[in-house]
Queue: 4 jobs
Job 1
Amino acid sequence: MIHVKGLVKSFGPTMALRGVNLSVPEGQFLTVVGPNGAGKTTMLRILATLSRPTQGVVQIGGHALPQGAAEVRRHIGLVSHQTLLYGDLSAEENLRFYGRMYDVPDLDARVTQVLEQVGLAHRRRDPVRTFSRGMQQRLAIARAVLHRPSLMLLDEPYTGLDQDAAARLETVMSTVGTEGRTVVMTTHDLERGLAVADRVVILVKGRVAFEANRSELDTAAFKEAYRQHTLA
């Protein structure tokens, strides 16, 4: 699904990504962790077609970026710490608005389905500004999966959530992640990031410093690898 080779991104004299190589098979859930300034969000923005690479090869679903950006966007669902929702519209109205943008077939039925998936069907007619931060993030996931994207990109989705809200969001993400989608998530939460992942990557100073399958790690080993590579 994702093939990245020699990815470089610079902002003037500052290099945010320094030759990243990464492959993500279809259906895999990849968690990317790293300290502030490691390049996590920059990499996700490039995958989401929101930023152009300075150098290197980036392919999503066989389409090269930035040339194939228009086609790639149809297959991406993006969730970030900014929910991209309209506060004065209801949950249902937000989803219908985005659904019309993507020409989602049987839109009313699909809106009902995704609201049930994220546990918000009972609040479908309430203005989003009345929602807690955790509820808004769950609605943002509903918005992102509405058009049935094959690739989900999640940038720090736990930001600003309390423990209960984060646990509920984790359950929702596990559900959408098991529907055959490829998922790439960046996070600072090592334990939660490992719990939902098939594979993990540690990004440090714009480079992949460590990667492993979830089956090869427990939480303690992952935390130790993170400590070693981020302090090096």
Job 2
Amino acid sequence: MDKKKLVLLVVALLVAVGTAFAARSLFMGASTPEAEAAVEPQGPKVLVAQRGLPTGTIITADSVNFQDWPEELVQDAYFIDGEADMTKLLGTVVRFPITAGEPVTQGALVAPGDRGFLAAALGPGMRAVTIPVSAKTGVAGFVFPGDRVDLVLTQTVAGGEGEPLKASETVLRNLRVLATDQSTESETVDGKTVVRAFRTVTIEVTPRIAEKVAVAQTIGALSLSLRSLADNQAQLERAIASGQVKVPQGASKEQEELLLRQAANRPLDGSTTYVTGGDVSRFQRKSKPISAEEKAARVVNRAVKAISAGAGMPTAAVRMGPVVRVTRGKNTTIETVGGN
């Protein structure tokens, strides 16, 4: 190879290396301003939803938070950090749905005591009913608005003979507490929640469950059983595993979260559990005592079955025959048909 070609090759190589370095510097220089531009928006902090808040959601400390917001996008209806009092916002109810990351406006919340507060706290298709309680039946005051409880019915079933049957039954589960007495919020002093006695509890139920609660109050005494916060999640996982709760294909993440949240928070009616006096003490009944009429009918039925099976024949002095039940008012007697 002659010297001229060698020189040209070296020059071309140097030009290529220089071009590569120049391009690298150019790209690095262009990316630096973009990185500097990606800074947090400089402006006041506004209150935004930490997650999707459907209608009826009670505002808690973990459901909203203050976040930096561009000053030119701030509106008068926003809650501004330093101006809004969070202690007054906690316990308010969402009037219409708010998506995650969306600023919370003043018109989106209803405060306790405002007109329509309880109606806004109810979910779609739900009702509010009130039941009387005492310190003993109301978990000694350790039930607050937003908690979830089970409803226990205790009753005495009378019979014909012997001691009556005493029974306690969990008739309804996973009911949301809306208010205690006329208060829809918890009282806090020096950062600690005040436990106080109350005489009534207002709960959120379906229309059918509202009817059951009304009847249950006439049957016996109602008491509350406070549910653990972990129960709903465990119960939801069992429902998903069994196929009771199904998420439709193509549902977005927000739709899926809303569906699962509604399934976890719905009141449960059915599959009740019960305990009788015999389960607690050997000196109590375990089953319902039979009435005198039922006892007489059993004796007659046993006699008829014995005769039919040839176990014995009626004597001439004692004649047996078909029997009928004769009801006069509230009294029922067994009468033999035929004979002298």
Job 3
Amino acid sequence: MEGLQHFLSYSGFANVTVGHLIMIAAGLFFIYIAITKDYEPLLLVPIGFGIIIGNIPFVENVGLQIGVYEEGSVLNYLYYGVVKGIYPPLIFLGIGAMTDFSAMLSNPKLVILGAAAQVGIFITLLGALFLGFTPLEAAAIGIIGGADGPTAIFIASKLAPHLIGAIAIAAYSYMGLVPIIQPPIMKLLTTKKERLIQMKPARAVSKKEKILFPIAGFLVTGFISPGSLPLLGMLFFGNVLKESGVTKRLMETARNPLIDIVTILLGVTVGASTQATTFLTPQSILIFGLGAASFAIATACGILFAKVMNLFLAADNKINPLVGAAGVSAIPDSARVVHAIGMENDKNNYLLMHAMAPNVSGVIGSAVAAGILISFLL
């Protein structure tokens, strides 16, 4: 009986709390919306299951070495790639190998929309400072507005490692919920007439331009923001592998098996880091609220700046303001949402490729913003 009682004291049933049940329900919700709604399933399924893994109750600090925060556990070793910022650059390598910058190169003025959307980062930073977060914490929280999970994790690992779990979950949650969050803002800030604007077809981009851009782009952004070198270096390197035409095997490895493996490890360990005993705090709730505000502000800034640009453009060269919403870095989901809303209003209005321009520039912009914040605050 004594042995049975000892066994039961170590079981999950004896150690479960309301917090564990709340987080397990959250993990199940992530999996549900990923499967039934097809919202970022490659991210939300690993994160959702990771949340369940991290919230199976166990007795802590008795040498079991199973929790993500317990020194020597398998999960702790895998989580090292998050804490030390190893996974985000590898994700960027895969993104670079998948990304076609043609839309951006064919219509460079749309890059401004990607930059405008990053305003949400700095407005949220100010809001976080007002709510009592330290400058380092506020900068890490603000980057959620870029809707770029790897960048959010990278800057949090440098500036506020103790907030990585909350920041990563918030960033990836809002990336997955792009089809829910963005459409109401897009419809609220645009008129029916504006949503019907049809943009000129993009010009063809030469192979030489495609090869030179990642090299020139990295040199410029690297000199401007050295703090972003690990992210932008891998992003542009991946794009060189794609566009050079002579490294097909490396490109295929970066854009398929490598990014898939890292996404699995990143998602599961980030999810597991939401262990109720350390995750469910007032700070985490504030971070989720600030993250939502940051994402909404970034979306609105992109749309509003497109409307401002239209004041100075010829009638036959107007920008559909919906495209500005794609300035956040949720690639390619934001661009797809823009296209879907455009098609709702006009079945012949194809905005996808136009929206990809601010979308990919938003990826670069959020990484540059992260590097600038790191340079200022460290």
Job 4
Amino acid sequence: MPILLILLVSVSSCKQDQKDTGKDNPFFSEYDTPFGVPPFDKIKVEHFVPAFEKGMAEQKKEVESILENKKEPTFENTILAMDNTGKLLSRVTYTFFGLSSANTSPELQAVQMEISPRLAEHSDEISLDPRFFKRVEAVYNNRGNFDLTKEEAFLLENIYKELVRTGSALEPEKKEKLKEMNQRLSVLRVEYNQNVLAETNNYLL
């Protein structure tokens, strides 16, 4: 079945089932499993998109509260606070991409095609937000005033340099162009990996 057709069918199915997967979606409650591992026996394909959407929405609100903080940027209220956002999104992301890389299916591939550019867009909305870069830059420039451990100083330096390298210091119009490129690349990356897998399976058969 062509990938585009699979995608359309999957998206339609996910939208249809979304209303029915809220209460029983395993991602929306704590895992009652040994060592807190994902309950794979309860997770269905149609659970992923609603969970991704809720995870992104929650993180967006969490990040916005940090960016609206009127207090002077510090390691705690900026770097550490940002690190504590997106718990649900991280849980869904690790589970989905771990499952899709180890035991994929046409349905999972369709979800991957749909969600990858949306995740890229979500990530760019955070990392390329000038308010975020301004706060991180302020913490970095004043790092000598904070009693940071070696680990905290290392983390701060790497986060700041990573933001610069990934375009956070660009002009607004260049940021918009970068966002378009990142979303396109996210789709191409998925297409490439799925094509390689398909060719490998055909060869083995």
